[in-house]
Design brief:
Shape: elongated
Protein name: ATPase
CATH superfamily of the largest domain: P-loop containing nucleotide triphosphate hydrolases
GO molecular function, one term: ATP binding
Pfam family, one: ArsA_ATPase
Strand order of the largest sheet: 3-4-2-5-1-6-7-8
Organism: Streptomyces carminius
Radius of gyration: 25 Å
Number of domains: 2
Mean pLDDT: 83
CATH topology of the largest domain: Rossmann fold
Domain ArsA/GET3 Anion-transporting ATPase-like: 5-180
Number of strands: 8
Structural class: alpha/beta
Strand content: 15-25%
Number of helices: 13
Distance between the termini: 7 Å
CATH class of the largest domain: Alpha Beta
Helix content: 40-55%
Length: 326
């Protein structure tokens, strides 16, 4: 089973919500899980209705019966660089001085590649960390990662760094990070909607990840809605407009007389039914594209009341029912 779960997706697909639901589902199986965000949006804190996360690992949820724990961390690139300088160069005081001079901000803002190295390094450190008994501190780490369009470069940046720095601690650190990211313990999951652009970006993203030798995991189809009518049902309804008007009248929607309110409702209802059937047909085609990727796929319902803590818990339950922890 994977220990590092990287969750990416096109903007607007709900990847943060899916990452949170996945982390909670794993924790509810009795595991100790760390949920990490790296984009500075404090999306985890909002979903779990807690105060903004500091640059430290904090427990935000406990599994049923006290089994399993969910911890969270918002990685800050500047603080990660200070950690890096202290870890490899013992520049604790000097590092703080560099921060005051603005050098840390310069390094993490002007050079985005450096920022990605620090973020991925911090995440992989959490994956590798062991306690005094030699056991992994976390059974799983779930990363709410950058969007699909940037994910391959984000994860592969340490390959470039290792190539530039042939020797020394930077080279060794970059290689250690890539050993984690490219290992069988890592899986990059993609979140999509049953819409053309997100599905196409998912297909392209899978191709890029595979070309880069990065381990692709699963596809999470988010915000799905139940199919009520198909094209055949809409056609049948259209062939019996009179009976449809009578059914509306029996339901109390207008009188039975010709030209009454019930009859006036027939055409608008048929138009809506036709649009729904077209959407269902398109979703079927998009599901076929996702199936063609040859990856396990999980579907999550649309949260009508928005993404909040009860919604995340409900999605976590759906994932557990679909066997996501296996």
């Amino acid at each position: 089973m994977s220990r590092l779960h990287v969750v990416t997706g096109k903007g607007g697909t709900g990847k943060t919500t899916v990452a949170a639901a996945l982390a909670l589902a794993l924790a509810e199986e009795g595991r100790r899980v760390l949920l990490v965000e790296v984009e500075g949006r404090q999306g985890i804190a909002q979903l779990f209705e807690t105060e903004s996360l500091p640059y430290e690992e904090r427990r935000i949820a406990t599994g049923p019966g006290g089994r399993g724990e969910l911890h969270a961390l918002a990685v800050d690139a500047e603080r990660a660089l200070l950690d890096y300088l202290q870890m490899f160069y013992k520049l604790g005081g000097a590092g703080r001085a560099l921060k005051k001079l603005g050098a840390i901000d310069f390094a993490t803002t002007i050079a985005p590649g450096v920022r990605d190295v620090l973020l991925t390094g911090k995440v992989c450190e959490a994956v590798r960390r062991r306690d005094r008994r030699g056991r992994f501190v976390y059974d799983a780490v779930v990363l709410d990662a950058p969007p699909t369009g940037r994910i391959t470069r984000f994860l592969a940046v340490n390959d470039e760094v290792a190539g530039l720095a042939r020797v020394g601690p930077i080279h060794n650190q970059a290689q250690a990070v890539m050993r984690v990211i490219k290992s069988a313990e890592t899986a990059v999951h993609l979140v999509t909607l049953l819409e053309e652009m997100p599905v196409q970006e998912t297909v392209d993203g899978v191709a890029e990840l595979r070309a880069a030798g990065l381990p692709v995991g699963r596809v999470f189809v988010n915000m799905t809605r139940p199919a009520v009518l198909d094209r055949a049902s809409v056609h049948a309804a259209g062939e019996s407009r009179t009976e449809l008007a009578r059914s509306l009248s029996r339901a109390g929607l207008g009188g039975a007389r010709r030209g009454g309110r019930a009859e006036q409702l027939v055409e608008p209802l048929l138009r809506q039914a036709h649009e729904h059937a077209e959407r269902v047909a398109l979703e079927g085609e998009l599901r076929a594209e996702i199936t063609a990727l040859g990856l396990p796929a999980y579907e999550l319902e649309f949260l009508a009341e928005g993404a909040d803590l009860p919604g995340v818990c409900r999605l976590a339950g759906e994932l557990r029912e679909q066997g996501v922890s296996r």
